[in-house]
Amino acid sequence: MSLGSPGNPAQLNAEARWDTFDPVAYVRKNYRTVLPVDAEIMAIVRAHFSDHFRTFPGLRVRGIDVGAGANLYPSFMMLPWCDEITLLDRATPNLHYLEQQLDKHDRGWDAFWRELCRDDAYAALPGGPWERLREVARVERGDLCALVDRQEQWQLGTMFFVAEALSSADEKFREGVECFLRSLKPGAPFAAAFMEHSEGYWVGETPFPTCDVSESDIRGSVEQFAEHLVIYRVGEPGEVRPGYTCMILACGFRRRGSS
């Protein structure tokens, strides 16, 4: 069933059963191996971040992964340049999963790091990602839309498959994108990924909300707060799960100025 289909009442983030979310089942289903779409996303984002920071050798920044959940590769992608990474999530099981990974990680994530190590900035990190991640990562309970009170706090950011999963309501999607981008300092590089035309998803026996958004919806929400924005269509329909058309990856920089 489409959680955001016409005629259904909007399901809000607070109404979703986040504390029943099973991160282990989610990882087993989605990140057991590096899918071609994951490899493509990582290739684009590692180049986006590496090309930017190569012009600022030695620069160390604060990063945030919004809705970190049970996906570690967005934080991996920020790791070479961060002295601190906030792993933000609202679901108790996801927070526990992240804490556990910092203590004793699942070996499956090593394959994602190897993909990133095709770029020297990642390959040069002594000892791989785990020691550094334990040093800089801070797991924090929080809601994306509460970032409205924490504007211009981070110099690097990622948000993967979060804004369209807040709710089946269009206005919550736009609010989520705005809150993420406003949390970044002007000029900060970012990468955000979205499921286009998602019909909702299940983790185990539990359904979770999604908003049906198009590429133009995503572009319109992001571009007013971004500059040098590039939108990529990645992956094939149904490559990860049924019920979406493709993934949309937005890479750019937080707009400087009044927006």
Structural description of this entry:
- The structure is a single chain.
- With 259 residues, the protein is of the alpha/beta class.
- It has a single domain (13-254), classed as Vaccinia Virus protein VP39 (Rossmann fold).
- It has helices spanning 23-30, 36-53, 73-78, 92-103, 110-116, 120-123, 130-136, 170-182, 215-223, and strands at 61-66, 82-89, 137-141, 156-160, 189-196, 201-203, 206-208, 226-234, 246-254.
- It has a seven-stranded mixed β-sheet, sandwiched between helices. Strands 6-7 form a two-stranded antiparallel ribbon.
- α8 (170-182) links the parallel β4 and β5 (189-196).
- It starts with 22 loop residues before the first helix and ends in a 5-residue tail after the last strand.
- Residues 1-15 have low confidence and may be disordered.
- InterPro entries: NNMT_TEMT_trans (IPR000940), SAM-dependent_MTases_sf (IPR029063).
Briefly, what is this?
This is Methyltransferase. This protein is an alpha/beta fold and 259 residues long.
